[in-house]
């Protein structure tokens, strides 16, 4: 008789086991080269920061008669899960440790970067799932879940070697996502003069969490940050053409290039300037720095045709005169005056009566033209020498001042202009010479440069290229010059008299139509405006264009008959004056981790102050003084925070951070600013960098940046106490 004993085999049960771990609890170990630590909390986060899930897989099987069961792990079915960490596909390997009788499944994303481990004790079925690093989740602004079905990797084997695999969803581990968070930020207030270096620096601290990009190749598509510009203004006018582009990034910093267009003069005229700059995020220092390539610069045009008044004087006099004054002062604004005076040849204009340059008949740069003193006629409709015109043998001389110089023709000019225009009536084929009086604002050095204006450089109402009326330059709208059929105008801009790295400004000029045989040369004007209107620096020799009726030939490009019989009637003069309006720039910054979880947009407000009065806004502000010029006179504050500073919330950014050792303050108010300065100058001894005191209910902070006494003084309106930690 044959007895058949059918074997018994274990089977997978219908039981389901679950466990939950949270990326918030991930902490990098020395042997793990993956991304950073997790961050507790976040939208949709599970409670706690648990990275270990444990239990027993025995519930996933029924053993049958051939007890006991033993348990093991494989990599079966795991690749199909499609898991990634930091964009790297997860791979799997199993090992068995005989000493502990334990199977270990290790999931890795590249060499040296373990993502999780899953161990099972072979005899008991006890398991432990340990999350070591992040796993890529679906994109979103919440901490969503990723489910890992490990059942296909778990086997049970009975006593006589029969095996079975658990149901795929028998053990389901839920991995809760981590998401980035912005931990601190501040707005920035800094001076326009601090562009491009050092710019303005504020606070921007964020924690990317477990889903970091450390060690990856950064790009515009793989960046911690995205930046855009929001509503922004220069002065009161909105900027346009706002562009922010990713430039470079590493584990320690990220750089963005930005550009925008702003109205740089009276909005009704519409002159535009393109600004560029960079925004740099320091991931280590938790800061951001904005730097524009150039100052925000606005200009206006002051015109004699719109002058507030004209007053005549005798030379050296202060009493107004009305008849044929040798000096006339035009008030164009409260802080811009033009002093006119004139010279004219006497008699036949020969010999000693001829126009001279520097006392002789040879002009060289640095000199001016002169002759016998004459009188000037200046009004809102005309400016001339010995009448309403400028003729052969006459020189009109102009100087710019911030206050009226009266009749003092020896006074040094105190105002400057970046450019000028001269408008004429009855223009034909005339040419002329403009001698610019220039000052270098960096060292106050003075030079003069002669500019030769050829007929073709003169702008007329309708540009023309006809042979007998060659005036090809269109009238630029930005200057607001109105021309009729008989009018002409010539415009001289900064790039017509500055070459290379020069940055001269005009503080006066001379106008003459004939050099009267004086030898020398002048720069050939390019009468166009803007970038295409830059003069090249080429020079032309003073000359008489013989045989042409004392006129230059308008068909011959570049020709200038500087010694001729031209007569011009000036009907208006315009002077380009600069101002520095406040700029209010808004940036929206989003932090995004490696699996595309993003923070809400963070708004950073940057105020670039046109002057030295700073005003804070809502929220934390960082006031920047690192690039502020020193007030050499030390009679008043070099900068003022007029409102918005709160100690403990806002910060003052200096080259040296404040500490208990380098900061001192005096509680008793000083009698006046002079007394404060005296006390501060004594206290700032090379070891103490900051001295704070109160004058009349306002705080004053003196700073010593070089160990030799006061470098700058900041007035904080209404602030009577600060802490050294406010200085960063």
TrEMBL record:
<dbReference type="InterPro" id="IPR019959">
    <property type="entry name" value="T1SS-143_rpt-cont_dom"/>
</dbReference>
<protein>
    <recommendedName>
        <fullName>DUF5801 domain-containing protein</fullName>
    </recommendedName>
</protein>
């Amino acid at each position: 008789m044959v007895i058949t004993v059918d074997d018994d085999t274990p089977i997978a049960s219908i039981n389901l086991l679950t466990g939950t771990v949270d990326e918030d609890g991930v902490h990098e170990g020395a042997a793990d080269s993956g991304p950073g630590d997790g961050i507790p909390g976040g939208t949709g986060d599970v409670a706690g920061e648990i990275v270990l899930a444990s239990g027993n897989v025995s519930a996933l099987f029924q053993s049958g008669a051939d007890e006991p069961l033993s348990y093991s792990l494989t990599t079966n079915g795991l690749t199909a899960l499609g898991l990634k960490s930091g964009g790297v596909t997860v791979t799997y390997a199993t090992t068995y440790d005989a000493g502990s009788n334990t199977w270990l499944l290790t999931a890795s994303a590249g060499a040296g970067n373990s993502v999780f481990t899953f161990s099972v004790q072979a005899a008991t079925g006890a398991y432990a799932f340990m999350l070591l690093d992040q796993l890529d989740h679906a994109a979103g602004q919440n901490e969503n879940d990723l489910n890992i079905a490990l059942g296909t990797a778990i086997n049970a084997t009975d006593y006589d070697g029969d095996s079975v695999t658990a149901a795929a969803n028998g053990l389901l581990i839920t991995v809760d996502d981590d998401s980035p968070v912005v931990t601190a930020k501040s707005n920035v207030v800094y001076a326009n003069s601090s562009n491009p270096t050092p710019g303005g620096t504020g606070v921007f601290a964020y924690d990317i969490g477990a889903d970091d990009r450390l060690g990856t190749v950064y790009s515009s598509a793989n960046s911690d940050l995205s930046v855009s510009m929001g509503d922004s203004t220069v002065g009161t006018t909105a900027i346009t053409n706002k562009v922010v582009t990713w430039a470079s990034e590493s584990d320690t910093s990220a750089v963005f290039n930005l550009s925008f267009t702003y109205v740089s003069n009276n909005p009704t005229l519409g002159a535009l300037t393109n600004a560029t700059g960079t925004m740099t995020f320091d991931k280590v220092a938790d800061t951001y720095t904005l730097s524009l390539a150039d100052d925000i610069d606005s200009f206006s045009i002051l015109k004699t045709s719109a002058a507030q008044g004209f007053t005549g004087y005798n030379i050296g006099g202060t009493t107004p005169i009305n008849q044929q004054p040798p000096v006339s002062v035009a008030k164009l604004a409260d802080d811009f005056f033009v002093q006119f005076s004139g010279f004219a040849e006497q008699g036949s204009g020969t010999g000693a009566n001829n126009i001279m340059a520097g006392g002789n008949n040879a002009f060289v740069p640095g000199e001016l033209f002169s002759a016998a003193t004459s009188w000037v006629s200046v009004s809102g409709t005309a400016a001339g020498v010995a009448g309403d015109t400028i003729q052969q043998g006459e020189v009109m001389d102009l100087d710019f001042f911030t206050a009226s110089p009266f009749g003092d023709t020896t006074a040094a000019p105190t105002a400057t202009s970046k450019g000028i225009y001269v408008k004429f009536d009855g223009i034909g084929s005339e040419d002329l010479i403009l001698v610019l009086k220039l000052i270098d604002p960096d060292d106050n050095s003075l030079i003069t440069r002669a500019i030769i204006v050829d007929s073709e450089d003169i702008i007329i109402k309708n540009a023309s290229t006809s042979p007998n009326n060659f005036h090809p330059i269109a009238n630029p709208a930005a200057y607001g010059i109105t021309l009729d059929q008989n009018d002409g105008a010539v415009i001289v801009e900064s790039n017509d008299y500055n070459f290379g790295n020069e940055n001269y400004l005009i503080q006066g000029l001379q106008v003459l139509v004939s050099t009267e045989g004086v030898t020398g040369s002048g720069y050939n004007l390019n009468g166009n405006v803007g970038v295409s209107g830059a003069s090249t620096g080429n020079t032309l020799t003073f000359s008489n264009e013989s045989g042409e009726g004392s006129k230059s030939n308008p068909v011959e490009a570049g020709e200038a008959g500087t010694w001729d019989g031209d007569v011009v009637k000036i009907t208006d003069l315009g002077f380009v004056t600069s101002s520095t309006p406040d700029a209010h720039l808004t940036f929206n910054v989003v932090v995004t981790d490696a699996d595309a979880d993003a923070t809400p947009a963070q708004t950073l407000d940057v105020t670039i102050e046109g002057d030295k009065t700073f005003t804070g806004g809502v929220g934390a502000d960082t006031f920047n003084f690192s690039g502020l010029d020193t007030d050499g006179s030390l009679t008043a504050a070099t900068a003022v925070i007029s409102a918005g500073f709160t100690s403990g919330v806002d910060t003052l950014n200096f080259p040296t951070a404040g500490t208990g050792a380098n900061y001192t303050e005096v509680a008793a108010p000083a009698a006046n600013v002079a007394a404060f300065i005296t006390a501060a100058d004594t206290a700032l001894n090379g070891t103490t960098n900051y001295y704070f005191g109160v004058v009349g209910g306002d705080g004053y902070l003196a700073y010593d940046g070089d160990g030799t006494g006061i470098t700058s003084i900041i007035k904080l309106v209404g602030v009577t106490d600060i802490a050294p930690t406010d200085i960063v």
